[in-house]
């Protein structure tokens, strides 16, 4: 495996790795390379079907390369690729999955595939960042080296987060501590509110850890220092929470015991002119302007329905954003805290025609629903896609409109194949959305209507 090869990169894999061919004809995936690169590489590992490679140097750079090889940006695995080229890659990624996995004929897809919605401001768009603490510094994991690094001049996070990060590091420098493993910073550029969460995996009992953290926050002046620094920049620190993640599962899922240390456990965001309260730990889209464009696609499609059924509703952000006068809304979600927030957000906006329930989407009983017709169903499942039981219920129920929002083109294509193969639905539109510039991730909104034939 120490032998080196000259590899011409011709495509990008699903996770943004360059793809080329070895002299044997076997595919090789090489992180950090892009189509058009001619690189010198060696094999890191291989199976009977493909190999994983390591780029030693780029001999001839692609015309789409904007950073020299080795200048990787932590958290931004496509930062070395021009923005226009990344948009082409994401569109091809979605269409490729739908034809290859979804079984949609290229000619049929061409008739419904829409141009990707680009991001007008692709820099400093993230409203949610999670940093690992290494020797008092707040770091991001480099997706190529898999090691935490100082992000330096970050390109993804809100600019105010850079200030927050610096002030937190200043506190840690003056009052070193081993209490914390990570810092989560969330906030809004529209309300100028910031929420902080400190993460600990200490082995002591929760009571001891909480007591030690409260003592540290008071003795170091952590909260008051950050509050004052943000206030001078025109922002408000709404609260500081502690998350104790003791197990591997809690660390992986960002869960565990949450405790409010100072202030509140939420900040407020504005979406489509409506106010949303985002609690610590709750899912919310990281790119607000792009979320509005994505939800606009869904809202225009479901606008003529009398009711909207929002499955995997989370904090209600989609349903409450696209809800129009005269429509009714019902949301289902398995996380009790999310349902509590959804109800809270409905009240914040004076919306009385929305109801939210703690229930798995696949347990929906369409026969017992009292929603007025015609009904539109919106699904925004996790990366694993829809449950088979829910797919069969959707096929049986055949709502007038079905809007599928996905963060994973592969599982989206798998589910679309079953929905279309049943004959219950007709594909109306596929629209990729660049929700996460400079990364390999892409959001997609697929619109389907009931097949009347």
CATH class of the largest domain: Alpha Beta
Q: Under CATH, the topology of the largest domain is which?
A: Rossmann fold
- Taking all Cα atoms into account, the compactness measure Rg is 24 Å
Q: What's the domain count? A: 3
Low-confidence residue ranges = none
Can you tell me the CATH architecture of the largest domain? Answer: 3-Layer(aba) Sandwich
Rounded mean pLDDT score: 95
Distance between the termini: 58 Å
**Which structural class do the helices and strands define?**
alpha/beta
- Strand order, sheet with most strands: 9-8-7-10-11-12-13
Give a description of the structure:
By secondary structure, this protein is an alpha/beta fold. The protein folds into three domains: about 60 residues, OB fold (Dihydrolipoamide Acetyltransferase, E2P) (Beta Barrel), CATH 2.40.50.140; about 200 residues, Vaccinia Virus protein VP39 (Rossmann fold); about 140 residues, OB fold (Dihydrolipoamide Acetyltransferase, E2P) (Beta Barrel). It is about 30% helix and about 30% strand. It has eleven helices and 22 strands. The strands form four sheets. The chain has a seven-stranded mixed beta sheet. Helix 1 packs parallel to helix 11 and helix 3 packs antiparallel against helix 5. The longest helix is centred in the N-terminal third of the chain and has 18 residues. The chain is globular and about 70 Å long. The mean pLDDT is about 95.
């Amino acid at each position: 495996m120490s032998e080196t090869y000259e590899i011409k990169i011709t495509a990008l894999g699903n996770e943004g790795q360059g793809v080329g061919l070895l002299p044997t004809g076997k595919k090789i995936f090489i992180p950090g390379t892009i189509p058009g690169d001619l690189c010198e590489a060696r094999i890191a590992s291989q199976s009977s079907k493909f190999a994983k490679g390591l780029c030693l140097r780029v001999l001839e750079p692609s015309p789409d390369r904007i950073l020299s090889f080795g200048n990787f940006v932590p958290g931004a695995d496509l930062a070395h690729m021009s923005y226009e080229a990344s948009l082409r890659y994401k569109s091809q990624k979605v269409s490729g999955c739908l034809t290859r996995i979804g079984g949609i004929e290229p000619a049929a897809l061409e008739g419904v595939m829409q141009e990707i919605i680009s991001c007008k401001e692709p820099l400093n768009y993230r409203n949610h960042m999670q940093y690992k603490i290494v020797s008092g510094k707040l770091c991001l994991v480099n997706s190529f080296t898999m090691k935490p690094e100082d992000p330096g001049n970050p390109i993804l996070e809100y600019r105010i987060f850079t200030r927050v990060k610096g002030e937190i590091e200043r506190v840690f420098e003056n009052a070193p501590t081993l209490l914390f493993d990570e810092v989560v910073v969330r906030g809004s550029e529209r309300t100028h509110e910031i929420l902080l969460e400190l993460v600990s995996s200490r082995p002591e009992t929760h009571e001891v850890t909480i007591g030690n953290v409260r003592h540290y926050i008071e003795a170091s002046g952590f909260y008051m220092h950050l509050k004052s620094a943000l206030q001078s920049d025109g922002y408000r620190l709404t609260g500081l929470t502690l998350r104790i993640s003791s197990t591997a599962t809690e660390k992986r899922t960002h869960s565990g015991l949450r405790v409010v240390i100072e202030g509140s456990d939420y900040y407020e965001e504005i979406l489509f002119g409506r106010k949303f309260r985002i609690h610590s730990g709750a899912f919310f889209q990281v790119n607000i302007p792009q979320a509005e464009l994505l939800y606009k696609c869904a809202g225009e499609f479901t606008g003529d329905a009398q009711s909207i059924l929002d499955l995997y509703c989370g904090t209600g952000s989609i349903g409450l954003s696209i809800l129009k006068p005269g429509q009714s809304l019902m949301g289902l979600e398995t996380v009790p805290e999310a349902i509590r927030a959804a109800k809270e957000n409905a009240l914040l906006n004076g919306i009385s025609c929305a109801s939210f329930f703690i229930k798995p989407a696949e347990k929906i009983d369409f026969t017992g629903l009292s929603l007025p017709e015609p009904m539109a169903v919106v699904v925004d499942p996790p990366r694993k896609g829809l449950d088979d039981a829910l797919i069969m219920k959707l096929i049986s129920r055949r709502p007038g409109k079905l809007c599928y929002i996905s963060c994973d083109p592969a599982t989206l294509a798998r589910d679309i194949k079953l929905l279309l193969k049943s004959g219950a639905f007709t594909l109306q539109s596929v629209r990729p959305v660049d929700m996460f510039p400079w990364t390999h991730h892409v959001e997609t909104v697929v619109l389907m209507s009931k097949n009347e034939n």
